[in-house]
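User: Can you recover a sequence for this backbone? Please restate the input before giving your answer.

Assistant: Of course. Working from this structure:
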C-alpha cells in the first residue's frame, strides 16, 4: 500500500509539472 502511494504521489507531481509547463506555453504565445 505504501508503494502505491509513492507511485501515485510521483504521478501527481509529474502531472502538476506538465500542467505548469502547459500554462507557461500558453502564456508565452500571447
Amino acid at each position: 500500500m505504501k508503494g502505491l502511494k509513492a507511485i501515485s504521489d510521483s504521478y501527481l507531481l509529474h502531472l502538476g509539472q506538465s500542467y505548469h509547463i502547459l500554462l507557461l506555453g500558453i502564456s508565452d504565445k500571447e
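That completes the design. The radius of gyration is 13 Å.
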